[in-house]
Amino acid sequence: MDVLEDFLHKAQICTRLDSDHQSQKLLDLLTLRPQKNTFMVRLYNVGYINETQLRLAIENRQLDYLMLSKEMHHKPRLSFVAATLLKIFNSIRSQLGAEDTSEAIKKSAMLFISGKLCQTYFQLSNPLLCQNVFSNMNNAKLSFGTYHPNQQLQYRYYLAKFYIAKYEFVDAHGHLHWCLTHLPDNYFVDHSNVTKLLREYLPVCILLGRRPNFANLSRKFYSAPLKCPNFFAIYADLANAIVSGNFSRLHDLLNNVHYASILKSNKFISSFCSKAFLITLRNLVKSIWIAQGKKMRLEYDVVRQGLSISLNDLELTSVSTIDSSPRRGLEAFPPLDDYAVENCLITLIDQNLLRGKVFPRLRVVSLAKSGVFPDICATYILKFGNGAEGLLNSADKWIGKV
């Protein structure tokens, strides 16, 4: 069938020629004389080709053409704008350091152009292209504090979105928190830009193990409850499920059509599916420990019972699965065994979310005398951050310059 696909490809090329050459090329393609058209001999050797095979080959060609067309001509105007902005950005960047009379003017335009360029890259669904912009800005020897507050806000907002695209939530949280604490006075009530910030800030907080104060944020930034965007309720429900260690509730929310559509549109569905499980597990085990009177030991049977209640006939491996049918019947899946319990405990210890030591033969986990459950966000900052909370990534140090 490769010969047939080659033939259709050649025929498609002929149809794109001008009228003077199109007819002759098609005739050459269809001629049966081997001396002039060796390709026809290959096609003849294929043998009988039925209508279904031909239709399938044509459909595949059409699909390939549509995908190529979409790739090449996806948002052509935005692509043109991005290319133009990039040329301007590179031109100004290359002239910095000349110490001429226009140096100050060129520097003053850099942050504005970089923000608009990053905005265009995100609209083109190519956020990683911002890496070049941020790298050049870091090496340009600029003073971030000298720029207009709105430009600073825009730059750090897209820098945060860039870190979110790379799943670097600690750095993203630092920039988003700065944006929310440095808002101009006219941004405080019912402002669309604040809504954009909160759309990123709320899920990042949850994925770092923090529960945002939704009520305070709503009162501070919106004039009435009806003005509050609908994603507030969605993230509040997800936060409640995670904080309470409710696996069943978390799974139901992730598989809810409305909730899933919001998470997908905000580009957070995969993050919650991959990272919410561990935080929920930690909170569940902590709840079990508190319910047991904060003893120095936790027995496997107690942990298993807590897991079973939280799962509510849900298979452990299917908690964060989308569009699955994981509810266990009476005979569908075996009950949780010691290996499953042990794996959960070791995972928490390995991720520094639980301080203790597992004793499989005794079927218990011996807990530390203090700090049994380290703070989730502090653990992530220590593991993935830049030292103390609020410190910038080495690539963003220039932002701290005034």
From TrEMBL:
SMART domains noted in UniProt: PAM
A GO molecular-function annotation: RNA binding
GO terms classed as biological process: poly(A)+ mRNA export from nucleus; post-transcriptional tethering of RNA polymerase II gene DNA at nuclear periphery; transcription elongation by RNA polymerase II
One GO CC term, this protein: transcription export complex 2
This protein's name: PCI domain-containing protein
